[in-house]
Amino acid sequence: MNNSLSVILPVYMEADNIDNAVKSALWAIESAGIKEYEIIIIDCLKRDGSDDGTPQIADYIAKNNQKVRVIHNRNYVNLGFKYYQGIKNSKYDYVTWIPGDNENLPESIMETYKLIGKADIIIPYTDNMEVRPFFRQAVSKFYTIINNLIFGLNLNYYNGLCVYKKNLLQVMPPITDSFAFAAEVLIYSLRSGASYVEIPIKIKAHSSKRKSSAFKVKNIIGTIKAIIKLFWNVRIKKKRISVKK
């Protein structure tokens, strides 16, 4: 495989997980046969300006691995902001992301990366959703059904760790910084004619002590607003991006 890859690794208060998340990403990349790659760790502080040591750990990892670099945000920023920041600072042909909570199995990440070059977008979807709490399963299923219905698509999942040709992301209009960013980028790309392949993957069981911030009221409201705006742009105004084959 000759395709090069930039991996965005957004982190927020992940002192206990970031080291293993980076190790998993490195193993998956190298096991998939990718020679040219980078991992871009992007962190931020809490709203009160404090942190749990994540920025310092990120700096230590980068100091000891030339394939890893760090972008520090000196205030709180949302996940979508970090993703867009990573795109702007990426330097290779394909771009993807991995959350810093180390939830994803490296074997599944590797299988996703092996498909790079088969299409404009590689779309992984979780096929062992039973490891997640029932409420999260239900919300995820509903989110998928709604997006498929209103955007005329037939996908298994909208929040996966998709791999994109960088040229698609470079012409993307400004994206939301809410948790809807993944669906927004994917929908813009597919409605514009980008090719894709889906691949089933498995994830680790999440700790019951850890609650997803995606279900905070303000994040839910932000996601709803982003999807409404996306519907207006994509379905009503017929806005598209340039897809270069």
Topology of this protein?
Blueprint (H helix, E strand, L loop, with lengths): L4 E6 L7 H14 L5 E8 L9 H10 L4 E6 L5 H11 L4 E4 L8 H8 L7 E6 L7 H18 L11 E3 H5 L10 H11 L4 E6 L15 H20 L9
Helix pairs in contact: 1-4, 7-8
CATH superfamily: Spore Coat Polysaccharide Biosynthesis Protein SpsA, Chain A
- Number of helices, counting only DSSP H or I runs of 4 residues or more: 8
The CATH architecture can be named as Alpha-Beta Complex
CATH C-level class:
Alpha Beta
Give me the CATH fold name: Spore Coat Polysaccharide Biosynthesis Protein SpsA, Chain A
Query: Kindly, what is the distance between the CA atoms of the first and last residues, rounded to a whole number of angstroms?
Result: 19 Å
The percentage helix is: 25-40%
N-to-C order of helices and strands:
EHEHEHEHEHEHHEH
Strand content: 15-25%
Gyration radius over CA: 17 Å
Largest sheet, in brief, is: 7 strands, mixed
Structural class computed from helices and strand pairing = alpha/beta
Low-confidence stretches: none
Question: Which strand order do you get reading across the main beta sheet?
Answer: 3-2-1-4-6-5-7
From the spread of the alpha carbons, the general shape counts as: globular
| Number of strand segments | 7
Characteristics:
Spore Coat Polysaccharide Biosynthesis Protein SpsA, Chain A; 8 helices; 7-stranded mixed sheet; 40% helix; alpha/beta; 245 residues
Could you explain how this protein is built, in words?
The protein is an alpha/beta fold and 245 residues long. The protein has a single domain (5-236), classed as Alpha-Beta Complex (Spore Coat Polysaccharide Biosynthesis Protein SpsA, Chain A). Helix content is 40%, strand content 16%.
